[in-house]
């Protein structure tokens, strides 16, 4: 009897902290670092549960847990083996364990029927929180578009909007979680198709006006996946309607605003073709970003197997070995602005293999492609991890948190849909 009461108490406790996490994560991401603190805090609290079920004595040897651990230990050991700045590399790699521990805890807790039933009973509540977050953030961006200042007092910069974020992350945020902020909750709440369609285009326009072109391109890519690979929800008529409205809405938006057209069409084409009048230190695509990519490739050639160590691109790029690649201010940054090149240059082919294996084994273990929620999360992850895009740093706190939140939702939906089928 005592054990039953004790189990009920700690299951209730874990249910509450995970409910708080899933409900508040879209808001904590606004304040850079808070989501990370929340993940770390839950990870520490959850270690007791892993200890109680003897996770590290027997369960950890399952392939879906061993591969992520192998990746983690590799980046830590490689920081000491490959890096010339051990403190910088080790500090970045050691703390990455928080995301993996959280993954362990969530996966194992969802095997507990009592925890699972309590959390599943709050799915609707969680999705409403995400829907409200999308409405709130996009409304603040719209307000900033007309007044130059967001509700949080942040001023627009060079025709780029931040909304409630201190940094220019608003477009990236809405794009990273596009379907989780719109389609998934609206479908779950059984909202009419035309209202879902309206909200999809509303969010897309908001992403467009933030001035973050990569976020807008990713959103287009995501909508393409949504249209052409969703054979359950979208009929042919609905797909044709979306395609028609897509071209009409965005053509109209950019024709009424010259700045949007110049930035998203004229400037992009000119930069891809190498025709730009901006100063050298502001060139990109085939200019600044192209130089960063080339630098990362040359750094990778130095040690293609192990790389130069976690977070070392910022140091390596300034070395004399790479002076043939233009001026140091063009070839240097904190990272090469591409996930694939960052992993290759800093952790080599072994690091790339292990992170790819980690993502593959987690997705394979949890994905149910025939289910809409799973398919949409997979679409988000495909766009998020697209190796051809210009990106932030892969192990950046905000970016890592965003990627792992998508993974955590995939795991949650996996158990949720199985639970619904068994009823």
Summary of the model, kept short:
With 423 residues, this protein is mostly helical.
What does this 3D model show about the protein?
- It is a single chain.
- By secondary structure, this protein is an all-alpha fold.
- It has a domain at 2-61 and 110-277 and 367-422.
- Helix content is 70%, strand content 0%.
- It has helices at 2-28, 34-52, 63-81, 86-94, 97-109, 113-120, 123-147, 170-176, 178-181, 183-188, 193-209, 213-228, 236-256, 258-272, 288-302, 313-316, 328-331, 339-366, 372-384, 397-422.
- Helix 1 runs antiparallel to helix 2, helix 1 (2-28) packs parallel to helix 6 and helix 2 crosses helix 5 (97-109).
- It is globular and about 60 Å long.
